[in-house]
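Need tokens for this chain, all 359 residues.
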Amino acid sequence: MSFVTAAFAALSLFVHDGHHAHEAPPAVPAALQLAAPTEATTGSGEYTFRHLPVQIPAEMAQQLVHAHGGFAHDARSAGGDGSTYFALKGVGLLNLRADVSAVDVIGGDESFANVNVHNTCLFRAHGETFLALPSDEAQRAFLTSPRGQLLRTFPNPYGDSGQAFRVTDLEYVDEQLIATNGYADNVVFVTNPLRREADEPSLGHWDDHTFGGTGTEHGKFGTAHGITRMPGTNVVTIADRAHARLESFTPDGRYVGGTTLPPGTLPCDVDYLDDLTLVGCLRGPDGSTPAPIYILEHGNIVAELNITRDLGLEGFTHIHNAAFHVVDQPDGPRKLYVLAYAWNPGNFTVLEQVLDAPR
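Here are the structure tokens for all 359 residues:
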């Protein structure tokens, strides 16, 4: 493996190129000329984090300004390998290693590798692992293997000549795949992703059951942006970006409660870990920038991570997605990492928990 370091000396992320060892490294966009003081931290108490330089492939660095997606952690507690999957237009599937040492390119079928994949969903069924990828750009969702093999495509439920299907996220609950049409009519669609269609086995079909729609009341959305299953339940939380609300539902669309964040924060998605909720936001309170990542415990904000303000990293004005990545330490407590995907411009970073931070 050759490490492409000279052209990326100013990057906060070390870049490696394990696929094209003899090619010259691509130019680094100005927005990615990053450097962070090693002593700088963000957050507070036990939720204090610092920037962790991580090796990323050169092809990822080249396309990173176009990032507009999210993460799926393959948790060891659920039988996974501890790594985290995500995607990038022009590159395809990516995987952050379980030990957080580097990001590897998986790639995948060009049908989803060359369009924006707006988030990533990982689920297990019948002893196999699947990835479900929503594309707001392609107006369809893709079912793939973890190695990027395309298994099934779910087209626009309105038909190619009908209303827009700007699908923003997917979640798997009770053998159903639930999709949020957040960049269009805010209708939530449902399907069984593994149901084989006799006529077209490579093509999926959406069920008649839907819920949501545009509105201000509970059960309606301003922008149904991200959807995440609450661990140990069949309840899903939908980040209503426009209304700064985290709204929870059963799979049949019954509203069960929610949490309101500071107005103007535009929360994009949530991630859960035990009693913690992680929320990446496009803006700060009242629409200010740069945007925070909130950590909530039992519905209350207990820490605010701000990558630009506290760590001095550029390119994180808008946080499009944030997720936990857990590493179990053999001789100590588990260590938390927070992954952040920025948008406009796109960027990626890993934050490492500071275990010896003052409480």
